[in-house]
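User: Second chain of the day. Same drill as before.
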Amino acid sequence: MTTALLVAALLMGFFGSPHCLGMCGGLVTAFGLSMKEVSPAKRRALVITYHIGRLSSYALLGLLAGLIGTTVLAPFMTGNNLPRILLGLVLVFVGVTMLGAPFLNKLERFGMRFWQYLSPLRQKVFPLNTFPRALTAGLLWGFLPCGLVYGALLIAVVAHNPLSGAALMFAFGLGTVPMLVATHETVGWLRDKIGRFRLRQLNGAIMVVSGLAVVFVPLAMSNMHGHMDHGSHSAMMSDTNASPHDMSQMDHNTMPEMDHSTHDMGDDNNAMHHAH
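Assistant: Same format as last time:
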């Protein structure tokens, strides 16, 4: 996995974080209210702890996604261009989703059923006044249904190996942290800037272009290389075909000179014989 793919996942998390805030805002508020009895220093430590749990959950999901990709897709992805083409198509799909296409809404609704199934376990972590509870809350938070998370998981599926999938999902989660830990004023400023400059849409467009480039640029380069090789082969064949003609020309031009030389040598011998 390239550094560019990790950066793409990080930016995907950051520019998509206003959507994350809409999905997770209530959860963040509930976590904050459950820690109102603890000291400010411990509250900061608890916030860091449940974000560590959340990123760990994302990394675990990425590991599983990468494992699925390398086991299920591996028989179809050896000795061909399918891994590169599949990665490009996934980038295009995720980019179009970031542009606003509701492709993952059904998947979000399916994820909501699983999230509701976890409700009894989620209730046990409140109040978040201990570090084990905060860590558990973060681990559960990673399963909150989110189309953006599912899009990142699709990229993790086509990552080269499970560890790459885990690293990619960790980078994605890291990109969402600033929005989720910012103060109320900073959250408003971030949302305003990201919305005003349409940074989420811009990032989606970049991902679409990147995906198309991943698919088509190597194909174009391969075709150009093939044409160049064909031209070189034709030139070599042309030179090879011209060689017998050049040899015959050389033989034709050289043989008369050799005949004249032989005739002159015969005349010289006759002259020497008459002299005797």
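The chain has a mean pLDDT of 83.

User: Great, on to the next one.
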